Amino acid sequence: MSDELVKIQNETDATMHKAISHLETELVKIRAGKANPNMVDGIMVDYYGNPTLINQVANITALDARTISLQPWEKNMLQPIERAIIAANIGINPQNDGNIIRLFLPPLTEERRKELVKRCNAEGEQAKVAIRNIRRDAIENIKKLQKDGVSEDACKDAEKNIQDTTDKHVALIEKHLAAKEKEIMAI
Questions:
Q1: Alpha-carbon span 55 to 70, nearest angstrom
Q2: What's the CA gap between 151 and 157, in Å, rounded?
Q3: Mean pLDDT for each 10-residue chunk of the chain (187 residues)?
Q4: b/e per residue, 29-47, with b = 16+ CB within 10 A?
Q5: Closest to 21 measured CA to CA, from 138, 173, 162, 151
Q6: Phi, psi (degrees; rounded to nearest 5) at 100
Q7: DSSP state, 41?
Q8: What are phi and psi of 70, to 5 degrees?
Q9: For the range 86-93, what are the long-range contacts, defined as Cβ-Cβ under 8 Å and sequence gap of 24 or more?
Q10: Exposure of 107 by Cβ count < 10 A (0-12 exposed, 13-18 middle, 19+ buried)?
Q11: Which of 56, 72, 162, 187 gets the highest tally of CB atoms within 10 A of its CB?
Q12: How far apart are the C-alpha atoms of 65 and 73, rounded to whole Å?
């Protein structure tokens, strides 16, 4: 098999792995009844006029299964952090006691659990679409190489390997979604 085909396969596998990593990151942000400091990742706080990630202006910890604590490095950042959490619309109201901000996670209702499962499935579908697009691009590149003189058999083998890689990654997505659904639906 030509070096170019091997390179396409390796790049495809690496890019698909990145799509899986992105899905894992997004699934961590969806709460499953337990407090997780990663739930507030990605929230931007106005830090003296500059949008800054919340974990760069405060220490974030899970006090117990239902409470997240945010302790700002500077006391005057309490209000901006509180506003950022409210603006992020994560479904939790911050409680400010003048020193730290606490996020109390209410118990999940059955309806809310089903909404969260739908959100997980939507994230999974986006990941599958990304995987399919990566596969399409790889197969297009293989067909270009075939037109440039690479043997048809080598190209067919490469396409089969790309499809096998795609199937493996889609199965991994399904596994992640099933685990997250089980975690969300557990009472």
A1: 9
A2: 10
A3: 83 93 84 75 86 88 86 88 84 85 83 86 93 94 88 89 93 92 80
A4: bbbbbebbbebbeebebbb
A5: 173
A6: -135, 165
A7: T
A8: -120, 115
A9: 88/40, 88/43, 90/39, 90/40, 90/43
A10: exposed
A11: 162
A12: 24
Cα–Cα separations (whole angstroms), residue 183 to 32, 70, 92, 180: 6, 25, 19, 5
Please report which residue ranges of the chain form alpha helices under DSSP H.
3-29, 78-88, 110-147, 152-185
Is residue 66 within 8 A of residue 105, CB to CB? The reply is: yes
Q: How many CB atoms lie within 10 A of CB 6?
A: 12
- CA of residue 12 relative to chain centroid, distance: 19
How many CB atoms are located within 10 Å of the residue 24 CB?
15
Cα–Cα distance measured from residue 57 to residue 77, given in angstroms and rounded to the nearest whole number: 8
> Residue 184 has which token pair?
């969300």
Tokens at residue 135, please? 């596969």
Domains of the chain, start order: 3-29+109-185 (1.10.132.20), 37-104 (3.30.1360.40)
Burial of 13 (0-12, 13-18, 19+ CB in 10 A): middle
| pLDDT score of 187 | 62
